[in-house]
């Protein structure tokens, strides 16, 4: 399957041009990142022609992250040389961060939903009180 962004899309977002030595790696990364995004979205047939614009942007952004910072450095120092790599593997690789995953899911109309427990306890008596004494539990007959 074709990548979700083109080499031209990638070049338009990078201040330094992609030379002939980087081209094969950039093309491979476009394919790899596209596969990761399709898998994360659960859309194996997603094509560049039908993908929302954010998918193209994110594909390029992740590829550039790997091209421009293959070691995953998050800081560096000159005097008494020091460097630091992130503990988060998404800083150096093609894996999606939680923020990237959520943004991509929203762009294709998928919403990650969940439930939240309230810190106060609400039991059946509270439900009956707040429901005006009407039994809304369909499994228990009301007489």
From TrEMBL:
Region (Disordered): 124-143
Origin: domain of life: Bacteria
Protein name: Uncharacterized protein
Annotated organism of origin: Longispora fulva
